Amino acid sequence: MREIFDAELKHIGDGLVEMSRLVESAITRAGTALLDGEHQLAQDVIASDHEIDRLERELDERCVHVLAQQAPVATDLRVVITALRISSTLERMGDLARHVAEVARGRYPALAVPDGARETFVAINEAAGLVARRTSELLSTRDVALAAEIEAGDDVIDRLHQDTFAATLSPDWTGTAQETIDVTLLARYYERFGDHGVSVARRITYLVTGDFEAEIHAPADV
Amino acid sequence: MREIFDAELKHIGDGLVEMSRLVESAITRAGTALLDGEHQLAQDVIASDHEIDRLERELDERCVHVLAQQAPVATDLRVVITALRISSTLERMGDLARHVAEVARGRYPALAVPDGARETFVAINEAAGLVARRTSELLSTRDVALAAEIEAGDDVIDRLHQDTFAATLSPDWTGTAQETIDVTLLARYYERFGDHGVSVARRITYLVTGDFEAEIHAPADV
């Protein structure tokens, strides 16, 4: 039974890594579509989100199957429950990447981000890409030192999110109402993306360190 | 064992109803704080969110305990997994009510919503209150006819969300950049709140009708 369970867990872990790699690709491409006004790329990100959704469903079914067949208890049970939560968080990160791509597509052939906010979004997209990349690495290596890098990346996103408010509220802001709206929502999507990355990082850290009491308290809304 | 399991399930169901009632109270009070500029009320909503968070943790622990002690399979297992998902969604609805209250508090003694958007937010808050109330009723009665009312309430919110874009993009809009940002984010919070209500409604419907295949596919991002 133990070998089957361990094989199932490995399978579930591989599924999470696969989801995370797709999220990483989605946010990176969404950022390029946004900043360079690439319509086809935006389209591709939007179309590929269903693949992340499909993986989530597959992974959830696998988790439910393991719970039913193996009836794990204690730590093993919490590992499976945590996997369910992480897959739901990764799915949501995929949605947020899709939302960024949708804004890019909606403004095409114009750029959604005006010149005055471009640098901020170049940086915020870079930080989001880092969060996603480190999340994939953390999921595949279980090296909890990566969690600190994810938290640091999220801090950068939070600061840049604040910068977008400062920019749109500045007397120098010459953006249209549409640009103010787009910048506000885009920054919010990235900010949530970072929060979710931190949520995954904390859950994995709890899995590795075994501090499951804390895991239960891991906020999705950090 | 069966009686213990049924008693545990009832306990979990009661916990979900309690969470939902708190969410209902939070969104209603947050709307009043927002529209009438009531600082103390905003403060109260923000302070009381931790109670929803505490209930979520308690409920999750109870679900994990039931899984460990009872090792449910088939439908029973899916009921517990669905309860875990609903508690996480209700917790998020509580966060969104808190975000509305935070905007109200941040602008005090001014009103965050300018006159030109007031009517829309009166209506959107009413629709969100309806979604929350029907969600509590659905959780306590399992009367799936209520799910249609929740979907209809969410449709109203989505339409009003679109109205806020039309308003802020209209040449008649005289709001400041701060007001444009606030209206954009507030409408987004309400829109997500409605989506989450629909997600709960669908999950409960699947529980009652037994269509668990569909449940797994219930989108959080409807």
UniProtKB/TrEMBL annotation, chains A, B:
InterPro entries, per this entry? PhoU, PhoU-like_sf, PhoU_dom
Keyword tags: Cytoplasm, Phosphate transport, Transport
Any GO BP:
phosphate ion transport
Q: What is its main location?
A: cytoplasm
Is the keyword Transport in the record? Answer: yes
- Where on the tree of life does the source sit, at the highest rank? Bacteria
What are the GO cellular component annotations? Answer: cytoplasm
Which function does this protein serve? Plays a role in the regulation of phosphate uptake.
Family, according to the entry, reads as follows:
Belongs to the PhoU family.
Under the subunit heading, UniProt states:
Homodimer.
What name does the UniProt record give this protein? Phosphate-specific transport system accessory protein PhoU
According to its UniProt entry, this protein's organism is: Isoptericola sediminis
Q: Give the classification, highest ranks.
A: Bacteria, Bacillati, Actinomycetota, Actinomycetes, Micrococcales
